[in-house]
Amino acid sequence: MQDVTKSHNDLAEEITLRNLMAQYCDAVTRNDSSRWINCWSQDAQWNLLGNTVSGKEAILTLFQQMMTGFEFALMIPSTCQFEVNGDSATGYWYLQEFTRDSNGNGSSLFSRYEDRYIKQEGNWKFKRRSYQILYSGEALFTGAFHPTKALSEPPNNTDDVEATSENANL
User: Fold this and answer.
1) What sections of 44-157 are H helices per DSSP?
2) For the segment 6-48, what is each residue's pLDDT rounded down to a tens digit?
3) DSSP designation for 157
4) Cβ contacts of residue 26 below 8 Å, gap of 6+?
5) Which residue of 12, 33, 112, 116 sits 20 to 30 Å from the alpha carbon of 46, by its own alpha carbon?
6) What angle do CA 124, 126, 134 make, to 5 degrees?
7) Number of Cβ within a 10 Å radius of residue 137
């Protein structure tokens, strides 16, 4: 039986890896290629449905080409597991995805990413991502999609947090 206790450091690393995926999914939803590519290491590999692309520049080019075909793409991460070993880690994610292409065709997907991570200059990045579709089906999205605007950077200190909290009450 696996030991269920984790150190504070392990939990902090897991939270940071979860935040990396949150940034990735948010960037997909907002079609923000600069924020999206910031999630990847320079020498990363992206295995997309059996085809591997290597290097940050090639990965970005593929992402931008793919996104031109979508009116919107929404990724919702769910179950995940991580194994952290110093400055490297492995893990996987299950996702729900909802898309509508430029022709108005909607789809609903369940997918899985298997990941290798690397910590560079104190920040976790995707070193390798392997993507697999588990389910794909038609979805009726007859309403309008209202893309969100980017939020400002997260607060850096407690004064910023207090000011943000006060503004939220306005």
Assistant:
1) 56-67
2) 678 888 999 999 999 999 999 999 999 999 999 999 999 999 9
3) S
4) 32, 35
5) 12
6) 130
7) 9
pTM for this prediction = 0.81
Which domains does the chain possess?
8-168 (3.10.450.50)
Tokens representing residue 78 in the block:
């769910």
Of the candidates 166, 93, 105, the residue with the CA atom closest to the CA atom of residue 136? 105
Cα distance between residue 151 and residue 78, in whole Å: 22
Provide the greatest CA pair distance for the chain.
50
In this structure, are residues 65 and 48 in contact, taking their beta carbons and an 8 Å threshold?
A: no
87 phi, psi to nearest 5 deg? -95, 20
Alpha-helical segments (H) within the chain: 8-30, 33-37, 56-67, 158-168
